[in-house]
Model the fold of this input.
Amino acid sequence: MTLELQGIGVSRGIAIGRAHILFHNQPDVREYLIPAFSIEQEVDRLKHATEQARDQLLAIRNHIPANAPTDVSSFIDTHLLMLNDSSLSSVPIDMIRSRRCNAEWALQLQRDALINVFNEMDDPYLRTRQDDVDHVVNRIHRILADEHVADHEIPDGRLKDHIIIAEDLTPADTVLMQHQGIAGFVTEHGGATSHTTILARSLGIPAIVGVESVRRYIQDNEPLIIDGESGIVLAGSDGSVVTEYRKKLIDFRAHIASLSRYKTQPTKTKDEKAIKLLANAELPEDISLISNAGAEGIGLYRTEFLYMNRATPPEEEEQLAAYRDVVESIDGPVTIRTFDLGADKTVDGGRHHGPTVNNPALGLRAIRLCLGQPAMFRTQLRAILRASAFGKVKVMFPMVSNQQELAQARNQLESCKKELDREGIDYDHHIQVGVMIEIPASAVCAEMFARQVDFLSIGTNDLIQYTLAIDRVDDQVNYLYDPLHPAVLRLIHMTLLAGKKHDTEVSMCGEMAGDPRLTRLLLAMGLNNFSMHPNAILEIKQIINETNLTELPRETLTILNMDNPFEAECLIETINSYD
Done:
């Protein structure tokens, strides 16, 4: 008898294999008083455990082949940096000495303090970095408790072709297990836009999240089938079902392999409408992926990585070197977004000195933080301007909500230009300036912005969550995250019409741009510039090249007025099913 479980399909593909139940044993940490004569012994115990954790990570890193994805080693390096950071290497030791508490409790107290800082951040990417803190702290806790290395970290082949079943996975878990050849994964928690699921898509791992209590229904080593597109988990399937899904798996792999032929083809519809496909870049390692995907440039270059895991913000020369490397490596324009750090996030190692932020999603972040930290902002603007001397660079301001913010940001940019002129430093005097449309206010006022900037870029991830008032990384409400909600679609359409009216280029850089289900709808709405993860580019290009805009169903744009989600989904199926 087949057991069918339903979750949220977040990374396409079919996986057939045996289940491997992954349990993250949470340490039972309790406080107890250390005798005065044993304090230094307890300090040494923590130091020794930290050194063992470092040795374990180095051993894992040394087993990573040279041709493995760079994400694998970068996550390990992040954890090694955390072990060396004073917030984990020194502060717990000070607590042991001042409070006379055990090492486990001191480490847990500092873990809780760091997690509270991350929880107050609005930016979803930065908030997910708390997973890294947990991963490192739990590793030290396991060593203090004399537990063995987690089995998914041992590169002995035991996980090859298995489907991982877990409560949740960190990004580090994901890259480690991808290297070991897992077939896919299913988790009880998670959403479509979490860092782990985005990583799964970029690594090509079939994945399903949000399958409540899945570990209660699936047995370890039980044969499973998962469909990462429909979100279906099948256990106990008979031979005919397995045969059917094996064929689907073969067809899917053939489809992915066939996409390579589109790499050198121009992107245009059957009726000769030229479309521009750009890539999003988050880390320097993404540049090689972008080049291999055939992107026409970078539509969103996130700069936050330069500011993270450090005590002070990056200097101008460091930023210039990073931006210049990208600009000189990419054949096409590079749109650099100024730092989009969230809420109370500063660059002093995560310490927060101001009042408690009750609602960081609506607090000091993005362009507000840029304008509130003018020295740091100007340093970045100077570096971006200087990088424009080495290739086509655009500058983009995040989360602009009113004309005053745009005017202040442009004034800072013009002031930096005058400084560089006085210093005789070269830059593009006609550098294009744009804003992100990612909150309802900017979408409603898109016409005003379109008159004043060179381009608009729709950031759908934030636009959806702000429009629908849901936190997209909160398991309790992320089921409400709906890109087909009429309010969301109307705001997107409004922005596209504003760009057309004022002859201002409009692009989309959120997850919607790389969703194959929505490509034809976005084309029908008038989107001509897509920016997405490089792994999605060839599939989106195939859909575009096989689309005749004049033959799209006449009722396509009626979706803007549909209040029934089922009807909207049916229309999407109709749009995508025609030849």
